Amino acid sequence: LSVGQILNYNRVWIPDNEEVWQSAEITKNYKAGDSFLHVQLEDGTELSYPVDPAALPPLRNPDILVGENDLTALSYLHEPAVLHNLKIRFVESKLIYTYSGIILVAINPYKQLPIYGDAIIHAYSGQNMGDMDPHIFAVAEEAYKQMARNNKNQSIIVSGESGAGKTVSARYTMRYFATVSKSSSNADVEDKVLASNPITEAVGNAKTTRNDNSSRFGKYTEISFDQSYQIIGANMRTYLLEKSRVVFQSENERNYHIFYQLCASAMQPEYEHLKLGSAEEFHYTRMGGSTVIEGVDDRANMVETQKTFALLGLKKDFQMDVFKMLAAILHLGNVEIAAVGDERSSISMEDKHLSIFCELLDLNCDKMARWLCHRKIVTTSETVVKPMTRAQAVNARDALAKKIYSHLFDFIVERINQALQFPGKQHTFIGVLDIYGFETFDVNSFEQFCINYANEKLQQQFNLHVFKLEQEEYMKEDIPWTLIDFYDNQPVIDLIEAKMGILELLDEECLLPHGKDENWLQKLYNNFVNKNALFEKPRMSNTSFIIQHFADKVEYKCEGFLEKNRDTVHEVLIEILKESKVCDKHVQPKLNRSRFDFLLKCFISTTLMSGIFQFRNSLSLLMVTLNATTPHYVRCIKPNDEKLPFEFDSKRVAQQLRACGVLETIRISAQSYPSRWTYIEFFSRYSILMTQQELSINDKKQICKIVLQRLIQDPNQYQFGRTKIFFRAGQVAYLEKLRSDRLRQACTLLQRRVRGWLQRRRFLALRRAALTVQQYYRGQLYRRLGAANLKETWAAIVIQKYCRGYLVRRLCQLIHVAAVTIQAYTRGFLARKKYRKVQPIKHLISVTGNNLCSVKKMNTIAIIPILYLFPVWFSYLLSFCICHVLSPFCFNRVLESHFQSQKEIYEKEIEGLNFKVEHLSQDINHLQKLFREENDINDGIRLEVSRLTSENLVRSRCRSTTQMCLWLSKYCEHVFETSRLKQIGPCKMTLLHADLKPRGVVVNMIPGLPAHILFMCVRYADYLNDADMLKSFMNVTIDGIKQVVKEHSEDFEMLSFWLSNTYYFLNCLKQYSGEEEFMKHNTPRQNKNCLKHFDLSEYRQILSDLAIQIYHQFIIVMENNIQHMIGKTTAIQEHLNVAGEAHEESSYREAEGGTDSFLLIFILRCSCMCDNAVNLKWLKDKNLQSSNAKETLEPLSQAAWLLQVKKITDDDAKEICEHCTSLSTVQIVKILNSYTPIDDFEKRVTPSFVRKVQAMLNNREDVPQLMLDTKHLFQVTFPFTPSPHALELIQVPSSFKLGFLTRV
């Protein structure tokens, strides 16, 4: 870091005791020679930080680089930058995976994450490693892809501390391979490979203070593949099982899981003969004081272990013999050894645990009791039996238990490998190494020494591999190569394994009869102290030594090194074990005794080999295997020791980063060119720094070179490769600073111009407002003087108008009343006058008709008033009387003539009336005839209207199809016949798209006819081999569909129409693409129509994305429509009468006619009828009995029943619990609490009743959701469905006017 970079406002990292590193901002420029750096912490604290001019604090990366998914992409590569980037991704973004070059850093979240499902596996399958977010599946896919591409074996090395998640990562890696390479012919191979994990975890994993499921051994699993790259088998190798855990556990730790699983199942009938009890009863399982793991069911795990044994083909008798040996180890640990004086020890023959141990292994109890307390010393001349002290006897007992368990573990692994063997030949393999990472504790012993030795070898292999990849990258890009100085840990390895090194001195001391740890340690002091810088002697201890490993200094206690390295069992005890027949029963018949004898020979020979010698040999074989493969690295990190989810302890993480080699990788990258940008990326990012003259150059690569030479003066800070630009550390940050300065200047200029424009705009608005106010004020001032007169004149006119109108209306009313009164009196008078005239005549006629003589007797007094009133009749009567008196006959003739004339008059009137009646009847008949004709005409009109309505509906449908075909016609003419018609503009094309609706599809046409016609146009372009024509056609088609979908984004029918046609068009492009996978179902005639000149895979992807976009919009519109229908259901429900079936069915018919929605109808039926039989009948009538309609809407039906049922008594509560099986407890309680009665006759549900129902439902296992799902996003997958129609057989209607199309 140069002094010129320590400027004001720059941010640096300074050490911190709590967070390891703390961010600070420089408040004053640093000058050369200053002893203090003035900074401000993020909390606002001002600080003067003392600095060494030779070691200035590291700079912080710009914000754009914070959160990068690859640590090598950081501009400043150092420990605080790496630590901060990991913390941001883990704590804030909840991302547990990060790349560091070729390393995948995996931080244990201590929480189950939904990122390992089959959908995620298929998403990463076939993808490049950098295309998607970092993931363990990405590393597995990269290994699988390189194996298939290069035919070379691969290895995935998973390492880390105990509790960092190594076992889980290795398990997910194996699961990925089993999923992506599944074989259809031998499907159980993958299951067997995965089933080996639970068994090895049961016998090789244990609870430690750092991890509840810690692997106490290293495991390398080779997954074998055939030539089709499908799994055919697997093989497993193990390294350095922690045998000491069998006989000793620290506080809060447990023995291996299998022991506790056996004890938890001791009461089962099949395990009674093992005579086991609880784990607290056995010495080997209670030493740590923690026999139970929270949240772990050992009995259930035992059942799972048995299932995996059976899946691997290991039978019951083999399993029972394994369990016998495990139980025997537990009983052996409880054998009491009593001290007899200072030099002797003994075991009681009545010790029940010794008897059970011998009974389980079929051994001689007396011999075992004797030789556990004695040992045989064989010399050349004699054999001496020497007693052992109690401590020696306890050590012998524990050594025997460790040896039995160790070889039982190896034998189980051997049987697993036999189960995973395959008959064919292995083509390639991928190895998964799940091995312990670098460890350092307060007290480090033999196991930690071996673990750290193995990690030194792995780190050396890792350094060489990284260095090789870096060199290959530079050679590929033609970058001048310079040697990179990286840490080589070969001196540490020489210190451990070279001649006269630590391991050789340890084996030499073990061969001595009286070898001791102190003697061996003194040899180390003599050989290495002050002679080897990597070996130190502690100042305050004479029983320890310190080795400077690549990760950290580790102090080892020498106590127990020789005993653990010897790992010997007395030969007499081995001879006694030979007599056991337990192992012989589960040896396969085909092996006979040869395999068993071989195992016994190995058992005896390994007792003569030291533990470190065995481990060194197996480690050498592992390194040979790894060097012959292409390695992939996964470093697991433990974020905190409390196992809290997404808690980041910076100290612990920094310690592990140093130990696992991540920081070393960063350091190697920082010494070279860690930042690498392609020319396109650089141009896109930093074009803002380029001048107009530079941008005018056509070659972007040349532009990048000119700009870099102008911006960075030192040419050693960057290199130009073939496809990338390589930058030294810090140069990207410098370019980012220049870019930020340019953006800041541009922002300042924009702000200045915008603020000036706003102020001018405000000033102009104020000026216009002032002018407007002045204008209105002056007008008001001039009008104020004449306003009063105008108002008074206008008011007078209005008053006159209303007054005159009132007077005229009043006069008119008086005249009207007077006229009506006069008419009434006049009409009354005339009526009375007429009445008076008619009445005397009627009386006179009646008198005359009865008796002519009555005239003579009339009272003169009565006649006189009548005559007075009727003078005309007086003369008539007078003459009548005279004639009657003088001549009765004359009077009769006169009267007869009078009557005759009257009769003729009446007859004429009657004849006239009859004529009128006849004429009126004829008119009536004529009118009736006209009325009937009019009714007939009206009926004909109604029929004609109905016919025309139906014809209009059909014509409207045909019109849309015709319009669509018109669009096709015009479009095809535009593409193919540009010389015949004018070009169709984009706007017109959009209008033609908008006219297409699904109602325009005629039923007698094939589905997707528009899509087939579009493909016929594509086929025509392919026939002509015209790329421009095809490109223009596809672009305009896709843009047109997008435009019409955008304009009709809420039109349900339009979206469904274009979704189906886009899908048909996509299937046609696939079916006739010429690819074999899409031609399987084609007929020979269809195969002749395949495209011959163009590959439209890019357009298929665009159409697929477009179909998914239309589908999502279609689902949104459909959800909105369904919500609208459900809203209608409530209104319809209030008017439904559930008393009678007839009215109910009519209501349903009305609902069907009104909404035409199955969901609305079913909601109504659920609300009205709770009888499932009726609902089933209704679904059957609708041809829906085979669908999932009933199961899907069953919760809705039960919710409707719950609203209608009685909710008072205990029987009601029981009935609710039995009936509502599709509703969760939360849903039922929510409905009962939300229920509101609709009248006063029903009461609300009481809280006691709700609690009663809730108590009855407590034992039910429900899906964790509050109410029914309202939204659910489905994964969209469009299956390929080939079209059965041959293109040459598709009939294009003549109304489409596409006669110019040529069939090819």
From TrEMBL:
Residues 1034-1259 form the Dilute domain. The keyword ATP-binding applies. ATP binds at residues 160-167. GO terms for molecular function: actin filament binding; ATP binding; microfilament motor activity. Keywords: Actin-binding, ATP-binding, Coiled coil, Membrane, Motor protein, Myosin, Nucleotide-binding, Repeat, Transmembrane, Transmembrane helix. It comes from the Eukaryota. Signal peptide: none annotated. Residues 66-740 form the Myosin motor domain. GO terms for biological process: actin filament organization. Residues 619-641 are annotated as: Actin-binding. The chain crosses the membrane at residues 866-887. The keyword Repeat applies. One of its GO terms (cellular component) is membrane. Belongs to the TRAFAC class myosin-kinesin ATPase superfamily. Myosin family. This is Myosin VC. It comes from Zonotrichia albicollis (White-throated sparrow).
